[in-house]
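Fill-in record for Secreted protein.
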Amino acid sequence: MTTVIWIAVALVLIGIYLSWTAGRLDRLHARIDAARAALDAHLLRRASIAQELASAGVFDPAASMVLYQAAHAARLAQEEQREVAESELSQALRVVFAESAQVEAVQEAPGGLDTTEELVAAVRRVPMARRFHNDAVRAARAVRRHRTVRWFRLAGHAPFPLAFEMDDEPPPALAGHVVRAEGRGH
């Protein structure tokens, strides 16, 4: 009789462990979804501001066209081309804002100071949001690699999490720019 009790206790403990692991994996997947939504919002904001700047007539026509096309492509990119399109927008921003004279030109335009601050904030937030997303992906992948998770299919039908890899290096002229709005919680 004591053997049956020990077997029952062992099965209950294994069940608790499996349930806890499945719950942990579910929370990690929810964290990935939330981080991806935040990343998407920051990428969309960055592309929208870039598109607005390109249409404002502040830059020469070639720079405006390059920036507008890259921002437009980033906003409309399908999921499988998104990383490339966002990287191309980062490159276009670096080309257009290679010198601080371009930042000054934007700031001198009507409403330019606010637009510059919004762009600087967006450019700073994209790498952070991408890092949060990729950290969540790494954590979920680590749990999913465990044999127990694979054997008991604790991940269910959730797709294998993929990191978002893109070029998110900020333009040199914007990297050192101080933003007034950061203290206000924007």
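KEY FINDING: Residues 21-184 form one domain.
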